[in-house]
Structure formats: structure tokens, C-alpha cells
Amino acid sequence: MFPEKNIDLLVVSCDSYSDVWDVFFKSFFKFWSDCPLDIYLLSNEKTFDQSPVKTIRVGRDISWSDNLLNGINQLKKDYVFLLLEDLLLNQKVSTAYFDQLSKWINNHNPNYLRLCISHKPKNFDDLVGRIPNKTPYKTSTMPCIWKRSTLKKILNKSESAWDFEINGSKRAYEFNEFYAVYKNLINYNNGIIKGKWRKTIYAKTKEYGLDVNTISRPVMTSFEEYLYLLRKCRSVLFNCLPNGFRRALKG
């Protein structure tokens, strides 16, 4: 039996994405019904009335980073597990594997642990690898666990999530102890791209619990979906490059 988790789970959102909340949590509880963490949803003024989710309201929507800073200041535990509201889980989450990672965090006190594979980390131990100190997308918003005090230092008010991944990664160069798993804890599909539902997600309304009669945002065209998949392939190829090349390309 592992000790009590020193981690809160925070779904990062805002009121303009409230139409996605029900779909997100349907997929979340479908694939992680025994999640052992306290679960919070970040919003501006709206609430999501579904147990066991607790809403953290931060007021006026200034920026993604302002919302997140205000939200994590209301949490109490040392670590925060971040999920974005448009990442729809598509495979069962292993609580046993999560317990291993939680125990590892208790023992190693990392600043950041990425929970999905993007590029291969340097070998550290049998469970996780080390992310190079200077690397593009060091502060990726893929599912991850942050030391809350470190995240507060790296977040910069007025930045978008995309700014945080680019500029925040450079600010994170001065911090060590960034790690990533060798095997995904979280498997997901991006549900929304640039404010639009992905066409392939919309085509599986029953699978994702989408109600076509209440969808309030547009759906990507076939051409937009094709361009997205091309960009995704380019990202996969980019992550296969050695870290030095990746840094040179990103500047």
C-alpha cells in the first residue's frame, strides 16, 4: 500500500470551452474510473456539477497562464497533474502504473514528469528517463506532473499555452530534474484543433458521447483535418531527430 498521493489532478480549461467539459469527463471516467486523486476543473465563472470533480473558479479570463497561476495557487499539494480539457482519453489508464510513478515522485522529488512519449528521454532508471536540460518543448503541455512551486516560477502572465511551450521551455533551462516516461500512462486523441472539433472525433459521436444536437462549435473540414495530420507527422519526425538538431531547428 503506497502512502497518500502528494498530487492533485487539475483539468486546465476556461469558460469558453465549457461545451467540452461533459465530453472530456465522460472519456476520463470511462478509462480511469478508479483515479485515486482529487480532481479539479479550472474555470472562470462557470461550475461543473458532477461528483467527484471540484471546480476552481479564477474569475475573468485574462490568459491561459494567468488562469493556471491563479488556479494552482488554490491547490495545497506539492504536485499537480495537468490535463487539458480537449485531450480525450482513448485507452484504460493503469492505476497500478500510476502508483509506481507516484511512489517514484515521492522518492526522487522531480520538477516535472511527462506522462506520454514524445521523444525518447535519456536513460535514468527502469521507470523513467531524463529530459535534456536544453531541449525544445521542455515544458510541453502534454499530460504531465509538475512540482507546483517550480511551475509557478516558470509560468509567465499573459502567455498562451503555445507561448508557454516555446518561451517557458527556455525559462526552464535553468531547472534540472525534468523526466519523462518510457511508456505512456495517458493515451488520448486531440478533440479540438484551433477551436474546431476534429472531423474524425465528430464522426464517432457515440464513442465520445458527443451530442450532435448541442455541439456549439464548428467541425474541421476534411482539408483542415488533412493539414492537421500532416503537421502531426512532421512533429513525429521532428521528435525523432537528435536533441542538438531539434534545438538548432527551433532556435
Characterization of the model:
The chain is of the alpha/beta class and about 250 residues long. Helices cover about 35% and strands about 20% of the residues. The strands form 3 sheets. It has a 9-stranded mixed β-sheet. The chain has a two-stranded antiparallel ribbon with strand order 5-11. A two-stranded antiparallel sheet has the order 12-13. A hairpin with a 4-residue loop joins β7 and β8. The model has no long low-confidence stretch (mean pLDDT about 90).
What tags apply to this protein structure?
globular, 19% strand, 251 residues, single chain, nine-stranded mixed sheet, alpha/beta
Which helices and strands appear, and what pairs or packs with what?
Elements: E1 7-12, H1 18-31, E2 38-43, E3 54-57, H2 64-72, E4 79-84, E5 87-89, H3 95-108, E6 112-114, E7 122-123, E8 128-130, E9 144-147, H4 148-154, H5 161-171, E10 178-181, E11 188-190, E12 192-193, E13 196-197, H6 199-202, H7 205-208, H8 222-240, H9 243-250
Parallel strand pairs: 1-2, 1-4, 2-3, 6-10
Antiparallel strand pairs: 4-9, 5-11, 6-9, 7-8, 8-10, 12-13
